[in-house]
Amino acid sequence: MKLGLDLRGGVHFLLEVDMETALNQRLEALSGQIKRELREERIRYRGGDIEDQTRIVLSFRDEAARTEAFELVRDQYNEFLLDETTEGDEFLLTLTLSEAEVRNIQEYALEQNLTTIRNRVNELGVAEPLVQRQGADRIIVELPGVQDTAQAKRVLGATANLEFRMEARQDAPSAETEQFPFRDNAQRTARLERDVIATGNNVANAQQAFDENGQPQVNITMDSVGGDLMNRATRNNIGRRMAVLFIEYRTETETREVNGEIVETENRVVEKGIISLATVQSALGSSFRITGLDSIPEAAELALLLRAGALAAPMYFVQERTIGPSLGQKNIDAGMMSVMLGFGLVLLYMLAFYRGFGLVANISLTLNLMLLVACMSILSATLTLPGIAGIVLTVGMAVDANVLIFERIKEELKAGVPPQSAINAGYGRAFVSIFDANITTLLVAVILFAMGSGPVKGFAVTLCIGILTSMFSGLMVSRGIVNLVYGGRRVEKLSIGGKLQNA
Predict the structure, then answer these.
(1) Whose C-alpha in 104, 141, 203, 262 is 20 to 30 A from the C-alpha of 254?
(2) Pair 145, 8: CB distance under 8 Å
(3) Per UniProt, what is the membrane topology (predicted)?
(4) Is the separation of the CB atoms in 73 and 82 below 8 Å?
(5) What is the DSSP letter of 500?
(6) 13 within a domain of the structure (yes/no)
(7) Once rounded to an integer, what is the mean pLDDT over residues 190-211?
(8) Using the 8-state DSSP alphabet, how is residue 474 labeled?
(9) Is 345 a member of any domain?
(10) Cα-to-chain-centroid distance, residue 412
């Protein structure tokens, strides 16, 4: 049976996807495509800046140019709502992302990040990890057996990505360029075009290697789309320089004193730096290399991140919890002790109050516990500390069914009903109450599983399986044993509590 993080030890992370950046990145990509197509169609425009994270505003000198742009965007970009306005002598075209498209972008960012995180966890080689979404913008990651939290955080949360851009021409308008420092020398800068040729999302494979001088490099293989983009861009720009821009999103913890108390705040930081600026000698294909990296570990980590896939949007650690192996073993010992103690007390109670029928209940209860563990193993359910609490609760609920049946049998015997008829009436008339109570509890457990996360899910899984096995053992197994003992013969007395009950 798989053990949960609280029993096995490891690290638990709760990460939050930055949806604002996801929208901004998508808008920047769409803005670049639209402006490139406007230039190809020789439609003169100004602006193209992003406003309010959902809008692109383009300005034109005359209405005819705006109309041409309107038709181009309308025919090729159905994710936008278009609005034409006029301010003075400027003809404006506002492109606003529809609500459906905003939801699609956010959902894609979350699902893509889930896939990327799973790939990165696989690269770490962790056995039986847990990666699942929580709500609309959060992801839970549990890594059993991992104790190096710094390495895990660096690999999981690193929002490292690459952008390939051409160096800006000398006469390029400042609105169409950006200036970035070099990663190895912040004093050195270069102006790059805002238009992005390709990104790390187009990388199909990346391997750390060494160049002819023994310096670390990363060999890149692009996918078909990325290869076509690189080939088209470099074929038309031979002799110009192309930059590889490294982008990293991370958090910095700032400690300061407020009213005599130490307060820690986390600030989100975006770092962009050029790691390579080389002259295009010939048209590039889908394979090339990135040089200019500082060290072998940096090259290996960059290759890992690109190979596992780039995150669609930055993620930040909201919660972090580490459980050591010794604490996990203590939880196992405490959980087993609680199960054994609860199970033993129930066995003694049933034997003391119901004598022979109590022995029948104890046999069915033992079988119920075995069935519960077997079902969890077959279904590959994860046993957690709350799950052990669910087992203890199941033991009590399982014996509750037998108590209802036995009390009904005692009532029938007191009313003068023969033993065989009392047994039949006890199991038959108690069935409805037992079934109703268990189905109600099962529905609650299903809701807990659907709405909860982490420990709550572990408890709900155990409770669901336990209810089903309890109904089987309480109604079927105990009835079978009673029929085996008392069936097919004349019975005058039943051993069902206190003293023998006469017919």
Answers:
(1) 141
(2) yes
(3) Multi-pass membrane protein
(4) yes
(5) P
(6) no
(7) 84
(8) I
(9) yes
(10) 55
